[in-house]
Amino acid sequence: MTRIFIDGSAGTTGLRIRERLAARKDLDLITLPEEVRKDPAARQEALNTADISFLCLPDDAAREAVSLVTSSSAVLIDTSTAHRTAEGWVYGFPELKGQREALRDAKRIANPGCHATGFISLTAPLREAGLLRSSVRLSCFSLTGYSGGGKKMIAEYEAEERYSLLDGPRQYGLTQAHKHLPEMAALCGLEHPPVFCPIVASYYAGMEVTVPLTPAETDATPEEIREVYREYYQDGLVRFAEAPDESGFLSASAYAGRDDLEISVYGNADRMILTARFDNLGKGASGAAIQNMNLVLGLPENTGLSEGLHD
């Protein structure tokens, strides 16, 4: 039976991975007693005896965990930012060209960032198709539920007497130095990271990432872009949707509780918007990590994951 260790299982992503894997009969979860959960020696033993370990840690702690691994067969799936553009690590986005094959044999896998997942899913296929130049200057805005901020932010939003400004959407990443920007540029082959406007709102889970395009960025028509997506996303958990009918609206929480991702194109040749909707805790975090694990194990990549029609 495959042995799994989650280093950092007390955080939001770690807890979600543990909850999901606990129901799997094909996996044996290594659990450290609370008193040694942070002990380096206990962690090192678990990391080296597990077949696959999930690192659900801050960046520096994730780097430390990697340094503890001496087993040549141990597979690490890092959910932090630490290794997403690092040499020797495979970026864990199976739907990108060539990534699925690389992931099956990978020992070091960097799980994508949630905002980055939406941006890359929209932008990378257009770069590969030659519809966007490497020098293009894009913008991106992204709505997310507060669960993406971790346990502290969840507690703030769910407090009985919370700060009044939490009632409205809040923009952040104002310095244009958001931690997802390096992977957004690198995985899309962009010379310039996008102008990025992330917004957290008072709902628990779900993301809606939007990339606007005009003739200044591309000569392609909306239909040409739709055709690229139709052809590109044939396998995996990313799918093109012609036009979800929500009476002229798009809900950022429509895919909450799911592990797939929906792409759509709206507008006209003069002004169009590309949208990606998914769960920041699903395809944006724990769902993607489990999808990557499934690939390493030679299982159908949607094993234990949730796909289904929203209401």
Commentary on this structure:
With 311 residues, this protein is an alpha/beta fold. It has two domains: 2-112 and 285-296, Rossmann fold; 114-280, Dihydrodipicolinate Reductase, domain 2 (2-Layer Sandwich). 30% of the residues lie in helices and 20% in strands. It is built from nine helices and 13 strands. The chain has helices spanning 12-22, 40-49, 59-67, 99-104, 114-128, 150-158, 181-188, 222-232, 282-296; strands at residues 2-7, 27-30, 52-55, 75-78, 90-91, 108-110, 139-145, 170-171, 195-201, 207-213, 238-240, 261-267, 272-278. The strands form two sheets. A seven-stranded mixed sheet has the order 8-9-7-10-13-12-11. A hairpin with a 4-residue loop joins strand 12 (261-267) and strand 13. Helix 1 (12-22) packs across helix 9 and helix 5 packs parallel to helix 7. The longest helix has 15 residues, at 114-128. The chain is globular. The mean pLDDT is 95.
